[in-house]
Specification:
Helices cover 30% and strands 20% of the residues. It has 319 residues and is of the alpha/beta class.
C-alpha cells in the first residue's frame, strides 16, 4: 500500500546544485525524520539515476517520487534518498521541449553524463559523509550510468572545489530495465520501425564511433577487479519491456558472472509491465530497492523472492 511520501520523508529539498556546470547539475534530497527511522544504526543511502535515453527532458529526478510512497524508513534501513539530474544529450526533435544548440544542459556527449553522476556522488560523500554506505539504483540508461560508476576509466580521484577527493564505491548496484551494451541494443532493433530512433539517440549520446560505445558499455568490464567492495548486484527486467530487450540482461549477467568476487551476490529479478511502468507506478521499483536493502541487512526474503538456478526472480509483488 502506498503512503504520502511526505509522511515518510518530511525533509524534502529539490534542485540542489552539486555543480555549477549547468542548470541540470542538480539533485533532489529526501530525508526521514529521526523519530520515523528504522532502529538499526547501520543505514544506507539510496541514490537514484533516471533514464530517458540520455536525452529526454521529461524524464528527470522526479521519477523517483512514485516509489518513495512505498519505501518506509520505519521498516527499512534508509539514511536518505537522493535522485540525480545530469546533463542531457541533444534532442532537437522532441515534440514539446526541443533542445537548442546553445544550451549547455542539453548538448552533452559521453563522458559528460557519467562525469556528472560521479561529481554528484562526490558532492554527497563530502556533504553527508555517505562513504560507501549507499545503493546505486538506475533505470534504463540510468542503469548504464550506475554500473559505469565502478568502471576504472571513469573514476579514481575526482577534482572538487577544495581539491582532490577520493570517490568511494557503492556496496550495491541495482540495474532496472538497463542498457549494458549499446552496440547490441542497436543491433537488436535494426529491423524495427524505430531503428532510426535508436541510432539517433545512441549517436547523440556517444558519437558515431562505435568503438567508443563499446568502451562505455558496462558489459565489457571486469567487475572482480574494478568493484572490489561490491556486496550486491541486482539486474531487474520485465518480459513486457518494449524498449530494451532481454539480450541486454543476458550480456550483463554474463559480465557479472565472469567478474564474480567472493563477497558479492548477484541476483536477477523478474518484473512485469512496460519500460516506464516500472517507475511510473512506483511499486515495482520500490520493491526492488526493498529487496536490495533486505539483502544487505542479511534478512530473509523468501516471502517475496522465488529462487531459481544462479539468479533469482521476483514473484508476488504489487503492480
Amino acid at each position: 500500500m502506498s503512503t504520502d511520501r511526505s509522511e515518510f520523508y518530511p525533509i524534502q529539498q529539490t534542485s540542489i546544485s552539486y555543480s555549477p556546470i549547468s542548470s541540470l547539475n542538480t539533485l533532489d534530497l529526501y530525508l526521514p525524520s529521526p523519530s520515523s527511522s528504522h532502529p538499526v544504526k547501520h543505514k544506507y543511502w539510496i541514490i537514484y539515476i533516471h533514464g530517458g535515453a540520455w536525452r529526454d527532458p521529461l524524464i528527470s529526478s522526479r521519477t523517483i517520487q512514485p516509489a518513495l510512497s512505498y519505501l518506509s524508513p520505519k521498516e527499512l534501513p534508509i539514511a536518505g534518498v537522493v535522485s540525480l539530474n545530469y546533463r542531457l544529450s541533444p534532442y532537437p526533435t522532441h515534440p514539446t521541449h526541443p533542445s537548442l544548440p546553445g544550451d549547455v544542459a542539453r548538448n552533452a556527449r559521453h563522458p559528460a553524463h557519467i562525469e556528472d553522476v560521479l561529481n554528484a556522488i562526490s558532492w554527497l560523500q563530502k556533504e553527508y559523509d555517505i562513504g560507501e554506505e549507499y545503493v546505486l539504483v538506475g533505470h534504463s540508461c540510468g542503469a548504464t550510468l550506475a554500473f559505469q560508476v565502478v568502471m576504472d576509466q571513469w573514476r579514481s580521484t575526482m577534482g572538487t572545489a577544495s581539491g582532490t577527493y577520493y570517490l568511494q564505491m557503492p556496496h550495491a548496484i541495482v540495474g532496472v530495465e538497463g542498457i549494458y551494451d549499446q552496440s547490441q541494443l542497436k543491433e537488436s532493433y535494426k529491423h524495427s520501425e524505430h531503428a532510426a530512433v535508436y541510432q539517433e539517440f545512441l549517436e547523440g549520446a556517444f558519437g558515431k564511433d562505435e568503438r567508443e560505445w563499446s568502451r562505455a558499455s558496462p558489459c565489457n568490464v571486469d567487475f572482480a577487479h574494478s568493484w572490489k567492495n561490491g556486496k550486491l548486484a541486482i539486474l531487474a527486467w520485465s518480459k513486457d519491456d518494449e524498449l530494451v530487450d532481454q539480450l541486454q540482461l543476458v550480456m550483463m549477467r554474463k559480465a557479472l558472472l565472469q567478474g564474480k568476487n567472493e563477497k558479492r551476490r548477484d541476483v536477477m529479478i523478474q518484473l512485469t509491465g512496460k519500460h516506464d511502468d516500472i517507475w511510473g507506478n512506483g511499486a515495482q521499483l520500490a520493491n526492488t530497492i526493498r529487496f536490495a536493502l533486505r539483502e544487505l541487512e542479511g534478512l530473509p526474503s523468501s516471502d517475496i523472492i522465488s529462487p531459481s538456478d544462479e539468479f533469482e526472480s521476483m514473484s508476488g509483488y504489487p503492480r
